[in-house]
């Protein structure tokens, strides 16, 4: 027998002894210490390789692999043992808890009375919490749309408010059916087939749980006819319906100068009180045109009460109620269920390049119609990079860009070549302003996306952003504007229903597709 064969035989015998020793541990457990020792022993058993024989090199590598495998197996068994010990500890803890519960049941009557007192206290707290939750019936409770309390830790009570705002419920009906039925499933699956629920003919109805108590008036400024109409409507609501009236500070001064009879009206003194209006007002009445509705929406940075808009302006896309019939219209709104249109709003944030991805202001800027980014006074074309979520959309080179809601589709976006869209269609309009391109057509994007418009560093000029036609902000190279759909829509009351009011507005306001009828040339 050669020296190499003798060394090989000796290694086989020693490794077999090491493996057998590792399996002699009790219950099949192998600790990490024994695994390391087995690996070290494996390395120790290997004779020093002084020969250049290739077979001995391969054999040595194989032995090292076996040693590593042994250590991994041992560590796995150790982890399994630790997990089993943890489960055993949890079982013993549960068993001890049950035994402790059994001891508590055998306590004296005094301890039992204390426990019953604590249980009743918890029950009362749970009941009070449930009172602020959803009703659980068909439709949506008002607390899902309008908050009953002012957000924030510092809440101040207002002695001028008679009571809490009146809750209401929203329900879905089909073709004027006010049965309150609502189909929650938008997509259903039956036997592997995908079908969509019919939502196109659903109207949203609002029903008060009790008669409204507080109404806010928002009026068009610098109009004598509107002022006279406002004072007449305030008198009627107070005398015939005993409604609490809120008005803007400007209107409050005008009414008090006119007549001391209006001492009962209420207003707010600062921005902090204005932020709590949604907790006090049940209904908003606007007297003016679409601009008055935009101004009323801007007063609410969060939830907005339902809006009844009377037409005292020019076009009136969002003001369907005639002022001549205000008593009948308000009577129906205050006492009966009525159809509403949920008009989505955009929330916008400005991010400065120097702010390192921090927003410029804490509160978002809310718009009802559109946010416009244009070149301002610059003679250069606007150069903007646009992103939708994480996807690149395009570069805008032209006079600017309009990001619009569907309610704003009949405003600036329409003038720039955008499509008219029903206000309850969920989407965001992406409309360029005079693009220097023959193929740049407007887009309609889904409502769940987030748009980012950024001024690149190689832009020749700056850009300006305006929100519903006011509040212009300058955007320099590296600055960005983030836009997404706000969770707080503007609920506007409908004269008939959402679709009828929309078609009436484009027929009467824009004379849409109005032309002479074709002459009848065929024989009688």
From TrEMBL:
<keyword id="KW-0067">ATP-binding</keyword>
<dbReference type="InterPro" id="IPR017437">
    <property type="entry name" value="ATP-NAD_kinase_PpnK-typ_C"/>
</dbReference>
<dbReference type="GO" id="GO:0005524">
    <property type="term" value="F:ATP binding"/>
</dbReference>
<dbReference type="Pfam" id="PF01513">
    <property type="entry name" value="NAD_kinase"/>
</dbReference>
<dbReference type="GO" id="GO:0003951">
    <property type="term" value="F:NAD+ kinase activity"/>
</dbReference>
<dbReference type="GO" id="GO:0019674">
    <property type="term" value="P:NAD+ metabolic process"/>
</dbReference>
<keyword id="KW-0808">Transferase</keyword>
<keyword id="KW-0521">NADP</keyword>
<dbReference type="InterPro" id="IPR002504">
    <property type="entry name" value="NADK"/>
</dbReference>
<protein>
    <recommendedName>
        <fullName>NAD(+) kinase</fullName>
        <ecNumber>2.7.1.23</ecNumber>
    </recommendedName>
</protein>
<dbReference type="InterPro" id="IPR016064">
    <property type="entry name" value="NAD/diacylglycerol_kinase_sf"/>
</dbReference>
<keyword id="KW-0520">NAD</keyword>
<dbReference type="InterPro" id="IPR017438">
    <property type="entry name" value="ATP-NAD_kinase_N"/>
</dbReference>
<keyword id="KW-0418">Kinase</keyword>
<keyword id="KW-0547">Nucleotide-binding</keyword>
<dbReference type="Pfam" id="PF20143">
    <property type="entry name" value="NAD_kinase_C"/>
</dbReference>
<dbReference type="GO" id="GO:0006741">
    <property type="term" value="P:NADP+ biosynthetic process"/>
</dbReference>
<comment type="similarity">
    <text>Belongs to the NAD kinase family.</text>
</comment>
């Amino acid at each position: 027998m050669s020296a190499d064969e003798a060394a090989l035989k000796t290694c086989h015998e020693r490794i077999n002894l090491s493996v057998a020793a590792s399996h002699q541990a009790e219950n099949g457990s192998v600790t990490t210490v024994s695994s390391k020792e087995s690996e070290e022993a494996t390395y120790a058993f290997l004779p020093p390789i002084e020969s250049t024989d290739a077979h001995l090199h391969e054999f040595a590598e194989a032995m090292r692999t076996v040693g590593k495998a042994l250590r991994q197996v041992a560590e796995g068994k150790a982890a399994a043992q630790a997990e089993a010990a943890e489960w055993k500890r949890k079982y013993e803890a549960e068993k001890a808890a049950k035994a402790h519960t059994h001891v508590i049941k055998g306590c004296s009557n005094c301890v039992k009375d204390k426990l019953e007192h604590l249980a009743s206290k918890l029950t009362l707290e749970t009941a009070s919490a449930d009172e602020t939750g959803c009703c659980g019936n068909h439709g949506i409770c008002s607390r899902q749309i309008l908050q009953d309390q002012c957000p924030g830790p510092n809440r101040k009570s207002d002695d001028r408010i008679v009571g809490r705002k009146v809750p209401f419920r929203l329900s879905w009906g089909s073709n004027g059916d006010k049965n309150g039925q609502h189909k929650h499933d938008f997509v259903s699956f039956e036997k592997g087939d995908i079908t969509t629920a019919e939502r196109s003919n659903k109207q949203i109805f609002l029903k008060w749980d009790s008669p409204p108590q507080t109404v806010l008036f928002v009026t068009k400024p610098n109009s004598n006819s509107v002022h006279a109409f406002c004072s007449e409507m305030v008198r009627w609501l107070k005398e015939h319906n005993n409604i609490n009236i809120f008005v803007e500070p400007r209107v409050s001064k005008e009414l008090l100068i006119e007549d001391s009879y209006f001492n009962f009206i209420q207003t707010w003194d600062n921005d902090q009180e204005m932020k709590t209006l949604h907790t006090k007002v049940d209904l908003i009445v606007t007297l003016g045109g679409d601009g008055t509705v935009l101004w009323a929406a801007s007063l609410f940075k969060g939830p907005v009460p339902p809006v009844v808009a009377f037409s005292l302006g020019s076009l009136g896309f969002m003001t369907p109620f005639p002022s001549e019939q205000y008593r009948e219209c308000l009577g129906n709104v205050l006492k009966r269920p009525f159809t509403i249109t949920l008009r989505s709003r955009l929330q916008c944030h400005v991010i400065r390049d120097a702010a390192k991805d921090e927003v410029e202001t804490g509160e978002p800027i809310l718009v009802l119609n559109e946010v416009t980014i244009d070149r301002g006074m610059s003679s250069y074309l606007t150069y903007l990079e646009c992103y939708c979520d994480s996807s690149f959309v395009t570069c805008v080179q032209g006079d600017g860009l309009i990001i619009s809601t569907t309610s704003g589709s009949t405003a600036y976006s329409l003038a720039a070549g955008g499509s008219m869209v029903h206000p309850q269609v969920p989407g965001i309009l992406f409309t360029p302003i005079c693009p220097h391109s023959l193929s740049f057509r407007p887009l309609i994007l889904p409502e769940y996306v987030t748009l980012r418009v950024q001024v690149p560093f190689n832009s020749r000029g700056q850009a300006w952003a305006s929100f519903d036609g006011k509040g212009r902000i300058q955007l320099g190279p590296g600055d960005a504007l983030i836009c997404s759909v706000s969770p707080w829509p503007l609920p506007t009351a409908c004269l008939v229903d959402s679709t009828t009011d929309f078609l009436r507005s484009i027929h009467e306001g824009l004379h849409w597709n109005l032309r002479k009828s074709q002459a009848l040339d065929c024989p009688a």
